Amino acid sequence: MRASRSTSAMREPDTTARPPLVRELLLVAGLFLVYKLGRQLANGHVVEAYHNATDVWDLERFLHLPSEGDIQGLLLHSDSLVHVANTYYATVHFPITAAFLVFLYWKRPGHYVWARRVLAVVTGIALVGHLLFPLAPPRMLAATHLMDTGLVYGPSVYGSTPQTDSLSNQFAAMPSLHFGWALMVAIGMIVATRGRLRWLWLLHPALTLTVIVGTANHYWLDTLVATALLGIALAVVPHPSTEVRFRRLLHRVPSRPLTPHGVSR
Q1: What's the 3-state SS for 136-190?
Q2: What is the pTM of this model?
Q3: Where are the domains of the chain?
């Protein structure tokens, strides 16, 4: 009986009023601009980024984490496969996150507000990390012996060197927002929808993990840190079902009339 009640609580009808569209568009656009500006502010720390990359690579070997080269080796078995991986990296990240937010806005407004807040918290903490810990991706570190698959096979979202890339910060590898956002999309869709097929959304972070590591754009540790940050954000931002139960609890508390002196009877 307790388990069934818990399940029903997670499936509370999403009756939250839909936020004003124009306000949300401006808010999301503002968050995106802050995201881009933050990445730009973290650019240019070349020496520090390469030094940190060496430390991260050595730490992974000390922890006996799997080699990123093993994943890249699987992709390089086929030119078509590595091209698909590069395309996935270049084109899926922003569109699927935007589609996720649009879907929740129209169909599950309460979950939309929750998801938007979680993404904002994760992104904000990540930008601080990019500023404090600039990190060259594994494709730039000679010690990894990994290939820049985007540059070799295409398509690539970056310039050939950080100095020629004025649109993005190539030293913002830690944590991986590619993976953090992908994991949040999966969690959000699983929580906000019904049916067994919703669990297939886990394929998105799984594919993203394979792609970002196999194309040598991120280390394993980048994804682990992103997962930890998402866990913190999920713990801090209340879920809609929690808010519903809290409102119901408030309604159940009987109001006690006050005496003329302001003291309850």
Answers
A1: CCHHHCHHHCCCCHHHHHCCCCCCCCHHHCCCCCCCECCCCHHHHHHHHHHHHHH
A2: 0.82
A3: 19-159+166-238
